[in-house]
Amino acid sequence: QSALTQPRSVSGSPGQSVTISCTGTSSNVGAYNYVSWYQQHPGKAPNLMLYDVTKRPSGVPDRFSGSKSGNTASLTISGLRAEDEADYYCCSYAGRYTWVFGGGTELTVL
Amino acid sequence: EVQLVESGGGLVQPGGSLRLSCAASGPTFSRDWMHWVRQAPGTGLVWVSHITGDGSRMNYADSVKGRFTISRDNAKNTLYLEMDSLRAEDTGVYYCAKDQSYSMDVWGKGTTVTVSS
Question: CB distance from A103 to chain B under 8 Å?
Answer without folding.
Answer: yes
